[in-house]
Amino acid sequence: MLTQGAEALGIRLGPDHLAAFRLYREELARWSARLNLTALRRAEEVVRAGFLDSLACLPLLPPGMLRGVDVGSGAGFPALPLKLVRPDLSLTLVEASRKKATFLQHMVRRLGLVGLRVVQARAEVVATDPRESGAYDLGLARAVAAPPAAGGLVRPLLRPGGLFLLQLGADPLLPGDWDRLLAQGFEAVREFPLPPALGRPGCRVVALCRVA
């Protein structure tokens, strides 16, 4: 399922990729037995709604080295799957929960990832740090809050011209949500509907550029 879904996204996974994703899934299952890391329990759910849903951000990523921030990273979606296939990404995972941050740090070590750091803090606090404010090319925030609230968390961390990849489900946005999001200083530049092969009908990723 992972191989076929990745191919539908234009991604070819080699043996090393598959071994890394297998290790990630096994560790996620082991830790979730005692911690509430994610609502995804079955292997199929992790692959489809965790790994492939995260990799669906990849077609909207520009080439070259990027500095990205994942707000409310939780179990590592979408940052860890993206890092596994785009090792050139330099990522900061912001997670307020100590237990979840500990899991993320564990996965960084187990997967041997470089250019990835975990910050245990609230995004609002991180954004007050002059070294972090406006420092990122790319912002991610999967299921951390409603779209306008997620945009409000990500925007202070993005440089002007930086991209916020907003992952949306099949349900329509609430009335006014889109206008509130754009009013924060974003402009929609591209949308990527998830391929039918991923089994997530109606889901899509929208690339928003910080313009103000």
SS strand fraction: 15-25%
- Helical proportion? 25-40%
**Average predicted confidence as pLDDT:** 94
CATH topology: Rossmann fold
Return residue spans where pLDDT drops below 50 for at least 5 consecutive residues.
Answer: none
Number of helical stretches of at least 4 residues: 8
Structural category is alpha/beta
Q: Can you tell me the overall shape?
A: globular
Proper CATH architecture: 3-Layer(aba) Sandwich
End-to-end separation: 41 Å
CATH class: Alpha Beta
**Arrangement of strands in the largest sheet:** 3-2-1-4-5-7-6
List how many beta strands DSSP finds: 7
Number of domains: 1
Q: Which homologous superfamily in CATH is the superfamily?
A: Vaccinia Virus protein VP39
Rg calculated over all Cα atoms = 16 Å
Order of helices and strands: HHHEHEHEHEHEHEE
Q: How is the biggest beta sheet arranged?
A: 7 strands, mixed
